[in-house]
Amino acid sequence: MSKGLPETRTDAAMSELVPEPRPKPVVPMKPVSINANLLGYIGIDTIIEQMRKKTMKTGFDFNIMVVGQSGLGKSTLVNTLFKSQVSRKSSSWNREEKIPKTVEIKAVGHVIEEGGVKMKLTVIDTPGFGDQINNENCWEPIEKYINEQYEKFLKEEVNIARKKRIPDTRVHCCLYFISPTGHSLRPLDLEFMKHLSKVVNIIPVIAKADTMTLEEKSEFKQRVRKELEVHGIEFYPQKEFDEDLEDKTENDKIRQESMPFAVVGSDKEYQVNGKRVLGRKTPWGIIEVENLHHCEFALLRDFVIRTHLQDLKEVTHNIHYETYRAKRLNDNGGLPPGEGLGSVLPPVPATPCPTAE
Ligand SMILES: Nc1nc2c(ncn2[C@@H]2O[C@H](COP(=O)(O)OP(=O)(O)OP(=O)(O)O)[C@@H](O)[C@H]2O)c(=O)[nH]1
Ligand SMILES: [Mg+2]
């Protein structure tokens, strides 16, 4: 096993002395796996520390969008999501006023710092979706917004003098709020998810889960999963993008048990057993949003922030953006379309696009 190494070294030393071309190896060269113990410590593993330092310096972007019918608690939930993540005292979310009705697609940026790492978070709040009498094609403005962000990124990418770090406004995650009816999904829900799941990572959530009994919640979750399956709607994490068995095992559990997360939101704090908790006060007690016995908010938070944040960004870049980019360039014979991109531009080097046909 250790034979390969000294030979390789000898070859290398000889090639320095004798300027003749080396004879071709009889068998095709395979990468030689160097046993670190033979040479002593090389330091390959420090790459993690180097990456950590870079991330600490630059921070990272994360853009999350919320969509759903008016009054389902979208604004409240994003406040809960990030308020539960940062020190409650220093949080810029520590405001007690009532959350106003959202009236336009609005992106609000925040910088959250934790453990020395900066997250540039943008929350894209959409006004009550499907509140019109005629809701036909009402996903269009949302799809348009998402595509505009891809277009912006593409334009920056194909610029001759491009920025060292392209500002990333692409939507990495879209929380879709399902009304806690206990019946079935509305045609509008299905239409939205069907169209948008091809352009963005959709995570369906059942809103205001405190309005359902445990049995209703469990049955409704099952029904929603079944309906999505019957209609062929893929939500995040999509099966086809699981990279290995470990991913598959972890994501199968999420797909088959957790989805859609039945959540409760609140940005009000109460004292429970001497601890301050985010909750909703009801005549029969306080619903603690981070208590897993009360709702699945903590599961959703852990999933979006603690286990899948990087993957959400990667799938956005490698799958959704790549599909958009390939289509845009294809439509224009390999050249970036539109004005303002410059007239003579080199074709953008093609990178493999898993979903492009
Ligand atoms: N019972 C219950 N009420 C909630 C929950 N989350 C929010 N609410 C309440 O629902 C109302 C609407 O909440 P918002 O967060 O403004 O809802 P929204 O979806 O952003 O509404 P629009 O901006 O109009 O689209 C508020 O009175 C909230 O306090 C929840 O999980 N359970
Ligand atoms: Mg709102």
UniProtKB/TrEMBL annotation:
Residues 58-331 form the Septin-type G domain. Its main location: cytoplasm. The keyword Lipid metabolism does not apply. It is found in: Cytoplasm, Cytoskeleton. Residues 346-357 have a biased composition (Pro residues). InterPro entries: G_SEPTIN_dom, P-loop_NTPase, Septin, Septin3. The keyword GTP-binding applies. Residues 1-10 have a biased composition (Basic and acidic residues). This is Neuronal-specific septin-3. The lineage of its organism: Eukaryota, Metazoa, Chordata, Craniata, Vertebrata.
